[in-house]
Amino acid sequence: MKDAKYWHAGPRWLAGVLVTASAMAGACGAAAADAYPARPITLVVPYSAGGPTDVVARTLAQAMSQDLGQSVVVENRTGAGGTVAAAFVARAQADGYTLLIHHNGMATAPALYKKLSYAPLKDFEYVGQVADVPMTLMGRKDLPARTVPELIQYVTQNKDKVSLANAGLGAVSQLCGLLFEQSVHVRLNAIPYQGAGPALTALLGGQVDLLCDQTTATLPHIQADRVRLFGVTTPGRIKALPQAPTLQEGGLKGFDVKVWHGIYAPRGTPPAAVERLTRALQKGLKDPAVIRKLDGLGAEIVPVDKQTPDGLRTLLKAESDKWQPLLRSMKVEAD
């Protein structure tokens, strides 16, 4: 009977142990999730310090640091149109401590580089969108054309002479220029520069005729009347330049180009870490200091439903479908 007593008590005792162990495991898992982040996070920027993407990154990193309780350290890894940084993050340990902030280059790289070591749509987890930066189509100050219709006529009649600057392969200024060429059915003399700064300097100096660049760089020169502004590249007028018409108003139907930024983590990053980062991103984008800074750059914070993994995933797919066929049709690729 004694043996029978212990025989019947055994399973009940074992069940209790299992329940207790399960509860402890769940508590440990929750504690681990709550503990993230336990050390500083690195936010990798594909472009040089002081550039538009770097400014957005540093502004946001400071705000996210306050919410996360850990430093978000910005690290610049330049080269190959942003692919060096993207490849680095794609290969990084998927623990939530190495992130990437990138713009349209995530969508265009597969069409520009034959040997890309990562797949933008497959090798990352998505944290969320950040902000959109409108572009402006500008001409040198003494360009004969003054409106979009006049510009279309001018470039059509002088296509062999008109120069169109850009900030280099894969830059959004190049994409904007390609879309303009496609819209007016001409090929102009494209002149690439090593970055947006030199391209803008060339336009200000009258060395090139046209440039499409983002408001983060062009606003001061437009406001000082140093360039001829033809219009903004977004479907609607923008808060930073309410008096400026859109290119669509000027007759370029469907013209829509903007610089967009998103934050990514390596594929396999724990969902709890991604969710925590998304919350920090959303809170950071509500910070009055961040709003003021981005407003001053002409950037527009995206709606909260886009500050999410699904929002960024949807955008990247749509932008890939938009730009990759155009780049391939115009035979634009890296050497």
Automatic annotation (TrEMBL):
- What keyword terms does UniProt attach to this protein? Plasmid, Signal
Q: Which Pfam families match?
A: TctC
Q: May I ask which residue range the UniProt record assigns to the signal sequence? A: 1-32
Q: Which family does it belong to?
A: Belongs to the UPF0065 (bug) family.
> What protein name applies here?
ABC transporter substrate-binding protein
Q: Which organism is it from?
A: Cupriavidus neocaledonicus
Q: List the lineage, top down.
A: Bacteria, Pseudomonadati, Pseudomonadota, Betaproteobacteria, Burkholderiales
